[in-house]
Structures are given as structure tokens and as C-alpha cells.
Amino acid sequence: MAPPFFVFDNRFMHDCVGCFVPWQPVAVAAPKMIRFNRALALELGLDAEALDSPLGASLLSGNQVPEGAQPLAQVYAGHQFGHFSPQLGDGRALLLGELIDRYGQRRDLALKGSGRTPFARGGDGKAAVGPVLREYLLGEAMHALGIPTTRALAAVRTGEWIHRDVGRLPGAVLARVAASHVRVGTFQYFAARGEIGSLRALAEHVIARHYPDLQDHADRYLACLHAVSERQAALIAHWMAVGFIHGVMNTDNMTLSGETIDYGPCAFLDAYDPNTVFSAIDAYGRYAYANQPIVARWNLARLAEAWLPLLDEDPQRAVTLANEVVDTFARRYQRHWIALMRKKLGILTLEAGDPKLIEDFLSTMAEQRVDFTLAFRHLSAALYGNEEPLRALWMEPTGIAAWLVRWRDRLARDGAPPEEQAEVQRLANPIYIPRNHQVEIALKAAVEHEDLAPLDRLLTVLSHPFDEQPDAAAYALPATADQAAGYRTFCGT
Ligand code: AMP
Ligand code: MG
What we know:
By secondary structure, the protein is of the alpha+beta class. It has three domains: 12-178, no CATH class; 199-265 and 280-339, no CATH class; 346-493, no CATH class. The chain is 45% helix and 13% strand. The chain is built from 19 helices and twelve strands. Strands 2, 6, 7, 8, 9 and 10 form a six-stranded antiparallel sheet that branches. Helix 16 (436-449) packs antiparallel against helix 17. It is globular. 48% of the residues are buried. It binds adenosine monophosphate and magnesium ion (MG). Residues 252-253, 262 line the site of magnesium ion.
């Protein structure tokens, strides 16, 4: 008999009763593997060869439930664009089960687009090929950039059409791997219902799973809240350092693990403008690039609020403790951001004037809408004396010329050998990011012509974002003005 494909070790369903309903995926017409992530499969200790197959497509689209899987739909609440919904939940997703990866880490294996669940509300429970591949691509790109993220194990065509505003679209299921799917909204669900026992059980699950060092801490709930704050601060600083705009930072899209989740309307900055918004549904710019740290703090405050009953028996004292956590977020974020930005400038030491130096570089970029990624990358050439590629990004170079003098003084005071500065900088400034126009080209070919060549090429280039690659120069270039004009992203739901 063939061995089971997955060795599930399901803890969530035992630890977090009341968080989910058992549910089965809906069979699809004709599952066909679009992309299987062999590297991730190996990390998970899976038989990549056997799964990258028609049988794998069937298992990872929900047509056949793998042996040992106990599929369930999670329930959660959440603030969406500031408005609280007491019950959201996986409307079109299912947790198949948990796997222990080769490093001993517990990982969720989930399906997205696997049919309606009791939480589907008006939705059809389906996902389209375009958004599924977008999530695959962006997740891999973020992973290669060293940013914590959920990842795609597979994207499977369903052989069915689904219906959206834009017309009928080919359907797909995404097999998603996450450190867990516990969100701020999961806690909000129990807090809103006053179910303190479940709230506590979920907190224990999160501590055991994501913050095991805190298990014996005398004040572990408070310590965990601080730790979540720390991870979120680090995550958002990473996003900001590469110009990532999540686009829909609702509290149900913020994980307790500190991973990026839900690549709906996300996109990377091109021309630097801190107010950039790409998402078509974000009319007021709530989730604009520059707002992300502020929103993360706001989301953390919602988590702290939900955790009040765990923090102290005395409600007044609980509020004081929660406020302390929220108040330290800005400081934590700033510390991570400065550390990353210093590296982007090739600076190894600390100086009080560094934040100003960084801000001034960004300001001169904003004034002339200079490409964020190229500007930082071209600093490397400038470090070795070739300022031309950098200066050429500015139409009017007076401001950048003055800034370069200050930067050189700072590098000199830093004292480290230029090779060392250059290496630190090279590893902090990607040359390749998922450029919006390239993403669109790759998805269009895959969706409309089932041509995966552009997607594969892009995935390959993005898998080594810091290394210059032969014949990949075009992937480093910003969109033309025409391509960039009015670029909009959609949730794809
Ligand atoms: P998202 O914006 O993708 O995070 O989705 C927000 C909520 O809507 C989640 O609870 C999803 O499960 C649900 N949802 C989104 N699209 C669909 C759909 N097509 N069918 C059912 N539920 C959906
Ligand atoms: Mg979501």
C-alpha cells in the first residue's frame, strides 16, 4: 500500500474547540496542477515527486481528502476598513491539517477556493486562477526577500468557470502553508461573545505554537502580547523597507505568528510616494504605504483589547498593561525600521543623525517620484564611486547631489571598509521585486493562454532578488509611464 502523502499532527482542533466547524471541500470538475512548489514540499518533508502529479492535483484541490486530514473552516471576527464584523470566518478556505516540517516547525496546510462553507455569506466559495497565482508569486517573492510569509504549496486549476464582475474566469484552488492561521480576528470573535475560556485556550495554543519560550513565563499573556507586538513591528518594517503595500490590513488579515497573509490587492511601490494606494477598494487610503505602521498599531490595539480579560483580573490594571504594549509599538517599529534602513544605506554603526539622513533621502525621492527600488540599489554603484546611475534617476539632481555628500561623510565616519558596507547594502536592497507590470504580464499569459513561461521566468528571477542575473535586466526596470498609469489591484474575491 502506498504510504500516506501527509503525516498530519492536528492540534488546533483539539486546543481550540469553538474556533471552527468540521467541513469538507467541494469536488471540482477537472483538477490540473498549474504549479507545484517542490522546494516548499521538500521543506515540509513531503514526497514532491509523487505530489507533483494528477493525484497531487486531486489532493490539493480538495477533490480527494488526503488520509489523516480533518478539514475544518475556522471562524473569526474582524475590523474591515475600521468596521467591526462579529463573524467572518473561512468562507472559501479549509484547514486540512498540520504538518511538522523538517525543522520541527508546525505548519498549517490549507486550501483556498475549495467551496462554500457555513461562513461564506454571499460568496461562491471559489477562487480564480489569476488571484491564486498572484498569491503564489507574491508569497514566493516575499519569502526570497527574507520576509515572514505564508506560502503556496500548489495552485490547481479546477476546470470550472467562476463568475465575477469582470465576467467568467477560470477557477483554481490554492494550497497554502502557514505557521498558523490564527488572526487578531480569531481573538476578537471570542472577545465579542464574552467567551473567555475559549479566548484563553486560543491564547495558550498561540503561546505553545509561536512563542514557546514564554510558556513558563510568570506573566505569559502580557509577555506574549509584547512578543506579538515585536514581531508585527519587525514585519511591517520589512514591508516598508522593500516598498510592499499589503492593501487590506484588516484585523482578520493580521496573524499572531507575524507572517504576511492574504495577498489580495497587495503591490510593490514603484515611484516613491508615501501616499501610494493600489487597491481599488481602498477609496480613502486607509492602507496606503505610509499608513501601514499606524494601522499595525491600531490592529495591535484591537488585539490587546480582546486580550484584556487575560491580562489582569482588575479591569483597570488590564487596560493600563494593554496600553503599555500598544504605546511601545511605535518605538519597536522605529527600531526595526532604522536598523533595516541603515543597512540599505550601507551604514553599520549607529549615529543620532541617521533617521534624518534616511528621511532626507526619501524626501528627495518623493519630490521627484524616483523609483524606490532602483534608488536604493544604485547606491551600491555610488559607493564605489559611480554616481551616474543614481543621479540619472532624478530629473533635477541638486537635492540628491547635496545628500550624497552627507551620505559619503557618514560612510567615512562609519569606518568600515567599503567592501563590507557594500555587501551589507547589497543584501538589503533587492534588484528584483515583483514589478506590477511584470506580474500582470505573467498572470495574463497564465490565465488567458495557459502559458506559464512568463510566470516561471518571473518566479526564477524573484527567487534570488539580491543577485544580478544574466539576461534579467528587464525585470529590474520600472514600468513605463503608460504601464504604471492608474495601476489598480483588486481583492479578486
Ligand atoms: P479576504 O479579503 O480574502 O481576506 O476575504 C474576506 C472574507 O471574505 C474572508 O472571510 C473570506 O473567507 C471571505 N470570502 C472572500 N471571497 C469569498 C468567496 N468567493 N466565497 C466565500 N467567501 C469569501
Ligand atoms: Mg483574509
